[in-house]
Design a protein that fits this description.
- With 414 residues, the protein is an all-alpha fold.
- It is built from 14 helices and two strands, in the order αβαααααβαααααααα.
- Strands 1-2 form a two-stranded parallel ribbon.
């Protein structure tokens, strides 16, 4: 049975040509990345050479999502304290995802299977992981008791991830500071471990003297981190883009990516604030995941626009769900809002899946590589006959795209 379900072309021939010429560029000054290199190098050294880098990435994402869904199932409102073991499981799932996300690029170089598809696939998985990582942290420290803060924290994470790729679309280089993704992930792992050891209720106890709940420490710390990232992002508009006359790498306005983001964020705020049925307060987990999937779709399109040096679309089919929720509120809620929220979730999930599958199908066909398989053993003079023998079955050698640079060790490392 064919892996591909959706075979209608999504990328144009010119986009595929530019994609094949794309070179990954990243600048990072992370404090923790150098400290973790020894662990990552050992981990990739025990990884079998026949395992494809994209398979490593997707396995990590699945582990992260499943462990988060276990946590959400025990506390869908963010107020019910989840079991301590669920918090530990979530910490373990995030650590596994972080580790596997860090070695996919290393595995690509070991197996001589680097390609632009690897970079795109990794960014796509990260766009999904961001939703679940942010939501799990909020549930673990019981932010459901403060719905406005929960909304703010989750949507800030989603928006800033989009802005990181907005900045890349403008400058052509993905930039990370001293305190960035790795540091944030380790902080969230720490939050889960504290909840696992002392119980999630620890975050609701008040700090002596200041008489504020302990989760306010997390709120203040993460908010300051968001503020620093927002300031660094805003500097982009002063410097200008890498294109002609300060435009983006695609030659478009540096403000062009703002439209899809606005069509996501503004409706999400309006729907939550104007809901007479408490759609966000009563179902924060479902709300965040549904709108997060929409965000993942527009972020993926932004990544593709950068890698193919093409103009970004301002509207997207994934926005149908939020649009229906707004129309329903305008007509005094003809349908129960929870029905439309579930529709938004399933519609966004299906739209994202078929879009990503179609893009991967286009790229695999163009580069003549497989998504989750590579020749084994790696391309070498002694294995050339085996590589040729299996070339037809694998859709061509993944090593044929080795002249294209894959992200070294995930979307946040180099």
């Amino acid at each position: 049975m064919s892996f591909w379900i959706w075979k209608r072309p999504i990328l144009k021939a010119q986009q595929l040509k530019r994609l094949s010429e794309h070179k990954y560029s990243c600048a990072s000054s992370s404090l923790l990345d150098p400290q973790l290199q020894k662990w990552w190098n050992w981990l990739v050294s025990i990884c079998p050479l026949y395992i494809a880098p994209n398979l490593i990435t997707i396995v990590g994402l699945i582990v992260n999502i499943l462990t988060t869904l276990v946590l959400v199932s025990y506390s869908p409102d963010g107020m019910s304290p989840p079991p301590r073991w669920a918090c530990f499981l979530c910490a373990l799932g995030l650590f596994i995802y972080q580790s596997l996300d860090a070695i996919d690029g290393k595995q690509a170089r070991r197996t001589n299977s680097s390609s632009p598809l690897g970079e795109l696939f990794d960014h796509g998985c990260d766009s999904l992981s961001t939703i679940f990582v942010a939501l799990s942290a909020c549930i673990s420290c019981q932010l459901g008791h403060y719905p406005a803060w929960l909304f703010f924290q989750c949507f800030c994470a989603i928006v800033l991830f989009y802005c990181a790729h907005w900045q890349t679309y403008v400058s052509g280089t993905l930039r990370f500071g001293k305190i960035d993704v790795t540091e944030a992930q380790m902080t969230i792992i720490g939050i889960h471990m504290i909840s696992a050891i002392f119980g999630p209720e620890i975050w609701l106890t008040k700090i002596p003297i200041v008489a504020l709940p302990r989760n306010y420490i997390i709120l203040i710390g993460i908010t300051l981190g968001y503020l620093v990232n927002a300031i660094n992002f805003s500097k982009m508009f002063l410097v200008g883009g890498s294109g002609k006359n300060g435009s983006t790498c695609a030659g478009t306005s540096v403000l062009s990516p703002s439209a899809p983001l606005a069509f996501l964020v503004i409706p999400s705020i309006m729907i939550a604030c104007k809901s007479t049925q408490g759609i966000f307060i009563n179902h924060p987990g479902l709300y965040i995941v549904a709108f997060g999937l929409v965000a993942a779709k527009i972020t993926n399109k932004l990544v593709i626009a950068h890698m193919t040096k093409s103009e970004i679309d301002r509207l997207d089919w994934s926005l149908v769900g939020p649009g229906l929720l707004i129309l329903n509120q305008y007509f005094d809620c003809i349908f129960p809002e929870i029905w439309l929220l579930w529709f938004t979730l399933f519609w966004a999930a299906a739209d994202l899946y078929f879009y990503c599958q179609g893009v991967c199908y286009d790229i695999c066909g163009h580069l003549k590589i497989d998504l989750f398989r590579i020749p084994y053993p790696p391309k070498s003079s002694t294995a050339s006959q085996n590589t040729n023998k299996h070339g037809d079955q694998n859709g061509g050698s993944a090593a044929s795209a080795s002249n294209h640079q894959r992200k070294p060790v995930g979307s946040k490392r180099h």
